[in-house]
Amino acid sequence: MNILVTGGAGFIGSNFVRHMIETYPNYYIVNYDLLTYAGNLENLKDIESHPNYTFVKGDINNRELVDYLIKLHSIDVVVNFAAESHVDRSITDPNIFVKSNVLGTQALLDVAKANKITKYVQVSTDEVYGSLGETGYFTEETPLAPNSPYSASKAGGDMLVRSYYETFGMNVNITRCSNNYGPYHFPEKLIPLMVTNALEGKELPIYGDGKNIRDWLHVKDHCAALDLVIHNGKPGEVYNVGGHNERTNNEIVHLIVEELGAPKKLIKYVEDRLGHDRRYAIDPTKLTTELGWKSKYTFETGIVETIQWYLDNQEWWKNIKEGTYQSYYEKQYGEK
Ligand code: NAD
Ligand code: DAU
Predict the structure, then answer these.
(1) Ligand 1, from 14, 17, 31, 36: best to mutate by most atoms within 8 Å of Cβ?
(2) Bridge partners of residue 247, in order along the sequence
(3) Partner of 250 for a Cys bridge, out of 95, 101, 210, 264, CB 3.0 to 4.6 A?
(4) ipTM > 0.85 (yes/no)
(5) Which residues of the chain form beta strands (DSSP E)?
(6) Cβ of residue 107 lying under 6 Å from some atom of ligand 1
């Protein structure tokens, strides 16, 4: 199988590329990524010269280049990770979210359709379902009710993917995953931000009352789910991915502080995120019963392993935090 992975230099995409290269010695992976602030080829340093792997820099909106690559490498499957992924950035600058997540998805779909590829997989998010109350779970039947410009743009992408199945009969799948954590997670997101700030002795900013709940999934469990969907997903179907690991942000931050032995006084409650979704929780029954997926990581072991990864890979995150990301951080939280 020859697979075009878009956005493969980001957090989940790079873990997925590595998973596929290690699992399938006969597959060929083309990683196509614009290398925005979030794309980082250091994430794939260990496999950069693997014979079954190649990287090409480009935008998913560049139809000519995507078309050229699909033909050149006889691509069978497209897996689209490419997106602007950070909710906070979508609040300050929504435009790029529509360009990459909506228009980019449509451009990819058009080129994939024209080349009659075997399957198109859209990597989406539970955030398209909106926010839950204290009980209940998101199922694949939950109506879409996105609340942030980020989740609205992801929902827009999902609707286009759905339409290419309904209208053109394209073989598509959409996956909707809960919050991932693990190695190579960009340090603007909650877990890596808190771990790296704690290591640097910087403040740990918790939005609002810190009682918002996220449903954490190890990135490797997500990659295993995507592998199953690529091979066994039924045409046109949506699959939710989550491992029943609900935690409040307060619990996450306190766990990190304790694990690192950092001073509690670093924790600082700051102004809440606008439109902050209260709770996400995935019902993964369809994925487990129809495709046989089961998570391997418990949150307790996964988070300790992840914190250790940040301890062992300080150069990786320090390079990011000292680069252009620094100016975003200062704008977001003030100089600390
Ligand atoms: P990320 O921000 O770490 O990586 C995104 C990658 O896409 C980067 O490498 C970036 O350079 C690339 N990219 C952005 N715009 C592009 C464009 N126009 N053309 C080509 N490449 C482009 O994101 P992530 O956390 O790895 O998320 C990957 C996907 O999974 C996203 O679609 C996101 O919506 C979805 N998702 C993420 C999570 C999560 O918890 N991180 C959960 C569910 C779904
Ligand atoms: O649910 C899946 C989604 O998870 C993905 O679609 C997104 O791409 C991904 O970024 C993530 O979105 P969240 O908004 O849930 O993740 P984030 O890490 O930004 O925030 C997690 C929670 O922590 C959220 O309730 C906001 C809070 N938070 C975040 C940051 C960065 C803080 O309290 N302080 C912070 O500094």
Answers:
(1) 36
(2) 214
(3) 210
(4) yes
(5) 2-6, 28-33, 53-57, 77-80, 119-125, 172-177, 180-181, 204-207, 213-215, 217-218, 238-241, 246-248, 267-270
(6) no
Residue 191 lies in a domain: no
Residue 256 lies in a domain: no
Burial class (CB in 10 A: 0-12, 13-18, 19+), 266: middle
In a domain, 273, yes or no: no
Minimum CA distance residue for ligand 2 atom 30: 190
CB of 223 sitting under 6 A from ligand 1: no
C-alpha to C-alpha distance for 38 and 49, rounded to whole angstroms: 22
- C-beta 4 within 6 A of ligand 1: no
CA 179 / ligand 2 centre spacing (Å)? 8
Q: For residue range 10-31, what is the model confidence (pLDDT) as tens digits?
A: 999 999 999 999 999 999 999 9
Q: What is the CATH number of the domain that holds 237?
A: 3.40.50.720
Q: DSSP assignment, residue 29?
A: E
Nearest alpha-carbon partner for 60 in 24, 20, 103, 117: 103
Q: For residue 107, give its domain range.
A: 2-181+216-241
Atom 35, ligand 2: residue with shortest CA distance: 190
**Is 77 among the domain residues?**
yes
Q: Domain total for the chain?
A: 1
